[in-house]
Amino acid sequence: MSRVVDRARRRVGDAGAAGAAVRDVRVDDEGITATASEEAVLDLLVDERRIFSFWLHRDGEQRGRDWHVGWPRTLQEFLVGTGRVTVAVHESGERVFDETVRLGGGDQPLAIVHPRTGQPLSLDKSWRRVVTFDTRSEHNIAPLMDAVQVVIDALREAGIEAFLAYGTLLGAVREGRLIGHDSDADLGYVSELSHPVDVIRESFRVQRALIDLGYRITRYSALAFKVDVEEGDGVVRGLDVFGGFLMDGHLHLMGEVREPFERSWIFPLGTTTLEGRTFPAPADPDRLLSAMYGAQWRTPDPAFHFSTPPSTYRRLNGWFRGLRVGRARWDRIYSRVLKGVPDPSPFVRWVAEREPDVASFVDVGCGRGADVLEMAARGVPSLGLDFQPRSYARAEARAQEQGLAGARFQTLNLLEVRQLLVIGAQLARLPGPRVVLARHLVDTLKRPARTRLWRLARMATVGPAGAPAGRFYVEFLAKAGEDGYAGRHRVRRRRAAMIVKEIEAAGGTVVHREDVEVSQSPDASRLCRLVVEWRQ
């Protein structure tokens, strides 16, 4: 990986020299435009606070002699108002633009903050909205540092020697503190095992040990997961744990590393200092940081992008990443923070009318969680399941605010069989009759995940003697009209005959089917609704 990264970094050249060549900078409603003959790493600040960083050529579009970088989509909703906007060369600090700018026709102060909490937001290297460390106090981050030590100790008890990794190791070695533009903490470990299957089993064993300590875990892949840590003022920060192993003379470390490596470059572990505390580090941090970031890792670059060789990407995907198919897309979709919860769907109201005696309601792929709140408000104990926990965070908070004890939420990855089987067994024990709902889920899933969905629905709706203990309700897009429905709901048309065939192959019986047009348009989109029972 380092050879690819080095080539990319050389295009930047000397950032200070490149900065001197950046001229004719303009900032307007469309974005940032500048002229530069060489690549430059630039920071954009609003009222002296860094919002995001970018490479002018890599991230921009050439327009004659100029380069134009449009506003990231994750930032656009905040760009209404007036404020002091600065564009500066990252390494030298030279200000190539520094003016008061009026954006979006607004006169109010530009405020790039979390709409509910008011916490200052920035964009990370992937332009996702985050609360970066440069806005946090020592008191705020102390719980994260405590958690780093606790997790390292817990991993050691589980037989794993963990160390600081990626940006956390980079900050410790380079500056002795967390990198200001970073937003999470990273740990890594190199297993004593050397086969992918064995290290996967070990990773899940370690996850169970951390859950037993009370931590909430979100799994990225079969060899990496995130530990949720709450900071002093309630900000939830991710502590990422990346597994690795040595095989065939190479270090394989999630998420981006496959490099020729020697065991002595990792073990015995040394130490490094971070925020005044001592933590484990690889025996030769330079070797590992070069494998992660290239030989020029000492030069700060807040807009750094990993350039993983295709061979490494394919290998790690094939071994470990089957659990995260599609995750990046939904992470982007649910990075948008809503001020409230959407209205419940017409579908859930239709289901409620058909099922007046329902005792348990489960919404698979619940999204923003509006339908779960609707059924809980009707007095039905309700559970929302979704791939991305950020999706239902606002609904979960509203349920607590309104005292809806019957509304619960839980993560579910349909591609993680062990999780699916556990949750399926839990659903089978809920009071009946049970209703399982999947609205606009099958029209976002590929065949392997749909197969798992049928399995979950069957487990949840079959009674002890093989008789139905509930019903499975499905709604999906059967016809994409010209009304834009498919785009608004981020779904793709599915042939009803194909879905019915898949359900029947899984042992289900469609006991009711109807089509619903979404509007009065001559070419309206059409939804298909199915009611399914399993009898054995």
TrEMBL record:
Example GO molecular function: methyltransferase activity
LicD/FKTN/FKRP nucleotidyltransferase domain boundaries: 156-187
Entry's Gene Ontology BP terms: glycoprotein metabolic process; methylation
Keyword Glycosyltransferase tagged: no
Residue intervals of the Methyltransferase domain: 360-417
Keyword flag Nucleotidyltransferase: no
Domain of life the protein comes from: Bacteria
Keywords, in A-Z order: Methyltransferase, Transferase
Transmembrane region(s): none
Protein's UniProt name: Methyltransferase domain-containing protein
Biological source species: Nocardioides flavescens
